[in-house]
Every structure is written in C-alpha cells, then in structure tokens.
Amino acid sequence: MESLIDIVLLALLVCIAIAIVRMKDLLAVIMLSGIYGLLSASFFVAMDAVDVAFTEAAVGAGISTLLMLVAITMTGRSEHPVRHKPVLALIVVFITGSLLIYGTLDMPYFGSAQAPIHLHVAPRYINDSMQEVGVPNIVTSVLASYRAFDTFGEVVVIFTAGMGVLALLSVVRRADDIAKIDLLNDSMHAEHLILRIVVKILIPFILLYALYVQFHGDYGPGGGFQAGVIFASAIFLYAMLFGMSTARRVINQSFIQMVAAIGVLLYGSVGVVSFLSGKNYLDYSALSADPIAGQHLGILLIELGVGLTVASVMVIIFFSFEGRRENSLSLENQNSENNNCENNNKENKKT
Which range of residues forms the domain containing residue 80? Predict the structure, then answer.
C-alpha cells in the first residue's frame, strides 16, 4: 500500500511538472506550482519527514504562491512567445543533469543500512540526543543544537535576501502619489465584506497557531522557520483584504526591518555569550549551570531569532513587491489621465 501511494504521488508530480513546462498562462503555472508543493509535502509525510513536509507546505505551497501572484501583477499574466531557439540552454541543462546523475552512481542505495549516515551520524543523534540536548524532537536537536552554526548561516542568507529585495524594489513616493494610491486601494477593497469579516475572525487563530508552532518545535514538527512563514501569511491575508494603505498604518516598515535585524542579532548573540564563557560557539551549556537547561534556553532563543527574521523578511519582500505594483498602477492611472487631458484639449481646439 505504501509503495502504491509513493507511485501515485510521484506520477502526479511528474504530470504537474510537464504541465508547468508546457503552460503559457503564468497564473495557471503558479496554481500548479502550489499544487506541486502540496503533493511534495504529502510525499515527505509518506517518508516520515514531517518537519520537512511542514516547511514545504508553508513555504512551497503557501508563501511562494502568494509572492508569485503579486509578481505577475507587475509582469503580466501571459508568457511572451519565445523569439530565440534555446538549443544552447538545453544542451547545458542536459550536460549538467547527466553529470549530476553520474555523481549519484557512487552513492549508497536509498535506505541502505550500510550507508555512512546510518552507521556513524544517525546512531549518535538517535541514541544520545535525548541525554545531550533533552529535546524529544530529534530534528530540532539536529538543526538547533548539533548543526546550529549551519542554521545560523541559513538565517543570514534569508536576511540578506530580504535586504537585497528591499534595495532593488524599494520605491520612494511623494505625498500626492500616496494619496492617489490610498484612494485606489480604498475603492478596490471597499467591497468583499464577507471575506473581510471571515478574515478578521481567522487572523487571531492564525497568529495563535504560529506561536504554537514557534514554541512547540521541541516536542513536535515546527520551529522558527515554519512559525515565521505562518505569521507572515496572516499579515499577507490582512493586506490583501484590507488594502496596503491600511496594512502600512498597522505595520510600520521601519519597525519590521529592525525586527529582521534583531532576529539575526539574537541568534548570533547566543553564540557570542557561549563563546565568551569559554565554550564553543553556540554551545548552549554555557547558558546555565544545568547543561540540559542551557540547551533548552539556547534553542528557545535561537528559534525565536529565526522566527523573527523569517516573518520580517517575508513581510519585507511582500510589501516591496506590492509597493512596486502600486507604483506601476499609479503611473498607469497618471498616464491615462494625461492622455484624457490631451484628448480633451484636442477636442476643445477642434470645437
């Protein structure tokens, strides 16, 4: 039965991938990408990788889909016809793929008991993590304690990506442009009363669930990455239903940028404290006289830093894309108004 589920899921993934390649409608491509993310999450659940499935569902099927939907509002819905022959690109992809497949031939078979990871690494984590870290969820022990330095690098990469998007897409607006954009948003979001009421009811529960995922990662699937994405999705939902002008009044952009930096600083500061105490960098046993209590405190602090950074960076990216779209809409409206004025002037001259 398990093999049948795996075959069905893999077949659906292949079919969706082929459909994505052949589609010219970018909206349909984004919807199929979201479905691909959900199927991937289901496949990870079938492989007992629940934490990875949680992340894939939140990021691959959730946040990524929303960000791409915002992106196509600026680029257009349909893909332009290809004006060149991508033969060279196809050859490069084929050669790269062949080399990657060739590189996997020396790897041990999937699930082999003789694989190095099952002989050396995994037994240490499975047998000793509870005594050394004291966290029931082994995935959290590995990510937040054993390889905390690697996770810190991932957080820095996320922060850097957010700052890069902010630098590339930030838009400086004049006061009259802001007033026009606010008027446009108010006219667009004045309706949808039922959706607004439902969202007002759902958002507190979404935020509460994000906090549960944040502080329950020691005992079950979750942690700062998933919690940050879920928290940001609630803000996205609020902005989409109530308008960006209202969302900006509720969520200060300067404060969000500061929170993103605070998350990275909090993570790094935990390592500095342990380093100054004579321990290795990010050795949480330096945080308390009881090593297990120190591990719990250190994991709690660094996971909080991860959650703050991820949520803030997601919000920064969303607001940057949406702000760029608003600016383009404002320019289009201004151009249409100028064209109308020119047409009216020509008609007046004729009369």
Answer: 1-108
